[in-house]
Amino acid sequence: MISKWFNLSIETKLAELEEASLLRKIPSVDNGAEKELSFKGRKLLNLASNDYLGLACDDRLKSASIQAIRDYGTGAAASRLVTGNFKLYETLEQEFAQFKEQDEAMLFSSGYAANLAIIDSFADRQTVVFSDKLNHASILDGIKMSGAKHARYQHNDIEHLKKRLESFKDSLAKILITDTIFSMDGDLAHIEEIAQICKFYNVMLVVDEAHAEGVFGEGKGLCFERKVSALVDLHMGAFSKAFGSHGGMVSGNSDLISFLRNKGRSFVFSTALPPAVVGANLASLRLVSADPSMGERVLENSRDLKKFLESEGFDCGNSESQIVPVILGSNALALQAQAFLLEEGIYTAAIRPPTVPMNTARLRLSLRADLTKADIEKVKYAFVALRKEILS
Length: 392
Ligand code: PMP
Description:
The protein is α/β, with parallel strands linked by helices and 392 residues long. It has two domains: 24-52 and 293-391, Aspartate Aminotransferase, domain 1 (Alpha-Beta Complex); 59-290, Aspartate Aminotransferase, domain 2 (3-Layer(aba) Sandwich), CATH 3.40.640. Helices cover 44% and strands 17% of the residues. It has helices at 4-19, 59-72, 87-100, 111-122, 137-146, 158-167, 191-201, 222-225, 254-263, 265-268, 275-290, 294-311, 331-343, 373-391, and strands at 29-31, 36-39, 42-46, 104-108, 128-132, 149-153, 174-179, 204-208, 234-238, 248-252, 323-329, 346-347, 349-351, 361-366. It has a seven-stranded mixed β-sheet, with helices on both faces. Helix 2 runs antiparallel to helix 11 (275-290) and helix 3 (87-100) packs parallel to helix 11. The mean pLDDT is 96. Bound molecules: 4'-deoxy-4'-aminopyridoxal-5'-phosphate (PMP). The site of 4'-deoxy-4'-aminopyridoxal-5'-phosphate (PMP) has 14 residues, from helix 4.
């Protein structure tokens, strides 16, 4: 039984979170994957999900999922290394590797699990891992898990990165890992420079393309678009964002993938993804490969909205992608703005510390390819009203 002291300390911590407007409550969304989600009986324009291409409710993905259940059942029933490795899973990995122009690809139960596995497999106490300060939490957790030395560099600061590399230049085992699109800011890593620097300093380069795949580089990610794909050692991505489904995917050369298959604990010791998910992943991959222009549509919507918001005086940071933050500062203001937009028929995510640094609480808008001109106008109108009502 929890001791009285322990219980009191938990209550105090919860009260502190409440006081700082940081207590998370899971919103009860009736149906959240559509362009219009339904929340408390109301239809709201969904600018909060990562379904950038609007594929999560696509009938072609649904049919592929249902077919996979018919063919293989509802659960994989074992890890891939035991019996949970069906033909469908291998087809997905092979087609994904071809799509990314890599030797091999490997599916994980989530993007989170993929990052843990990559870092924990390739890094140990003798390794230095260079990591952007705003990298995703799964990367930080992977570094902690591996026991590697963590050389953090200031966000997107190449000069600082070079200094960090100089100070560890005699270390033999070095890995650099970076998001290519930063999830709460929507800005892009300076990947061309990073790739050249890694080559110069003999550093293994790992990229997290979770938010870039499906959108940038004909769906193949930012490294492909910027023509540095061949300089990257491991490409990590996720089916949970633009592909509208679920799971992490890592691709690279055969030796690296084979090592990961042997060492990645979140792969070895976890049941394979269910067939329904893998069926949808394959359908989604085929749709994205067949229409490389899908990502460009979402980027057009984002550029238009960001330009407008900035002209209205909002701070959208350095976003250059489908993720557009509206940085407001205080936690309370972010919550108030979110509530205001809900009344205007728009669902946005209020993002607060520790997800973002202190005093940079924000609304995170994630744009979708299926937004019409009228939808974008509705959002613009709501932000003009927000400025008048709450921020002036
Ligand atoms: N990397 C990045 C950059 C992410 O934003 C996320 C999820 N938000 C992940 C990894 C984890 O992916 P998943 O949600 O599929 O576990």
